Amino acid sequence: MFKRDNFGRLFMFGMTAVDLALVLAGYAAGWWLRFRTPWLGAWRSPDDLPRAYVLAAPVVLAVFWVVFKFHGLYRLRRGVSPVDGFSSLVRGVLVSLVTLSALAFFDRTFHYSIKVFLVAGALSLGLLLLWRTFAHWLRVRLRRKGYGAARTLLVGSGPLAAKLVAKIRAYPGTGLRLVGLVDDGRGAAGRAARMRLPLLGPIPQLGRIV
Q1: Are 173 and 179 a contacting pair, CB within 8 Å?
Q2: pLDDT in tens, 73-84
Q3: Residue 55, Cα to own-chain centre: how many angstroms?
Q4: Cβ pair 169, 144 in contact under 8 A
């Protein structure tokens, strides 16, 4: 059984804020590279181009946030490898780009440059990969120190429970903190002692113990 504290919510709030800030930075850099440098071709631009992209910025951030949330990037999942997280991030950026390109295509009030969105997506992906790598390392370090650890109650004391206890202790970065076990089988007290966990009571009293 897990009891979450406020640490997880604060961590995900900070991760969301940094994600959106990096997306905005990539979007701004994409506009600058497209319209203020010769690298992506010249543009016969009217002077009001910056205003149109500034007004579109909230839509860009909203699309990225919704897509990232849909892909589970703002769920505090334990035991997920960095590779799985990065693949979700790549899919999220690609879906966001497709969505923004479709919105830009159907917007007949202004001709948005697709190069801005492509460059913004590439830059955002690179920045987000670096940030998410650091955030994963930081979260594991904090969990090892007990921050954001989920109090975990084990049900049963058999061989499978013993293997689970050993695995949790071998990987403290998962953030699971064992507080005890419940079991009403014969010899449960001895098995709990061998696992170095307190026996909190029989299984029928699980509701009261939790």
Answers
A1: no
A2: 888 766 566 677
A3: 27
A4: no
